[in-house]
Amino acid sequence: MEIPLTVLYELADGAVSPEEAAIDRENATALRRLFDHLSERDRLIVELRLAGLSGLEVAQSLQCSHAVVRTAQHRAFGKIRALLVESELKSNARPL
Q: What element of type H or E holds 38?
């Protein structure tokens, strides 16, 4: 029995391959490890922002000013960026 290509494309469309699922899990684990380097408050602010809340909504939910959220978010993303650069440098380092 032959299956038309259009049916196969429909089945495959949107489906996540086992390889893609493994990469997604690996990336999620790496991201959680980066978040471990943040203070609890900075981590919460970043998680809420990544969940789709606006800076103002995060401030309201944490009962702090919008400026505090912006500053903490900036600091947290800067730290994550630095950790990513450090990790990349270590992985590219060659033994002498």
A: none
Residues 79-88: tens digit of each pLDDT = 999 998 888 7
Report CA-CA distances (Å) from 61 to 39, 44, 71. 18, 11, 16
Query: What does the alpha-carbon distance between residue 24 and residue 88 come to, in Å, rounded to a whole number?
Result: 19
- pTM (whole model) above 0.90: no
Which residue from 83, 43, 41, 84 is spatially nearest to 63, judged by alpha carbons?
41
Q: What distances in angstroms separate CA 86 from CA 14, 34, 41, one per listed residue?
A: 34, 12, 23
Measured between its terminal Cα atoms, the distance across the chain in Å is: 60
The range of the structural domain enclosing residue 38 comes to 5-92
With contact defined as beta carbons under 8 Å apart, do 33 and 43 qualify? no
CATH of the domain at 22: 1.10.10.10
